[in-house]
Amino acid sequence: MTSVYDFSAQTIDGKTRTLGDYKGKVLLVVNTASQCGFTPQYKGLEGLHRKYADQGFAVLGFPSNQFGQQEPGADTEIAEFCETSFGVTFPMFSKIDVNGAKAHPLYKYLTSEKKGLLGSEAIKWNFTKFLIGKNGAVVQRYAPSTKPENIAADVAREIAA
User: Which domains, and CATH codes, for the chain?
Assistant: First the structure.
């Protein structure tokens, strides 16, 4: 696999979607959770999505229950929570594993392309973010504590590139 566009994933409403559908766009791929201290970042992620969507940008949310069991609900519950609590309009995908033997292939690729702190591939917590350039390559990895608003300049730079 040479880019994120080589992968597909199940959407939160049960359809298979190839990430090739986003070819040529700048993406922010985020593992999310509904019951996490970082859950309010949904607001900032939605703000980024709305601000730059018409310029070729999208946030892609991938719920995961691997960290403190903070995403226990079914996909339908997650979708409803995101919409009613934060007005999320960016694409959300079905709940996945981001670490371990059952990690989604997309996340195996992302973590091998951009290591975390001290060279670790593992996702450490919810709301780890990966910025993807228009060519489908991983540009940057951000810690869960990095607020979406603090990524805006990087997003704008990638859109302009």
Answer: 4-160 (3.40.30.10)
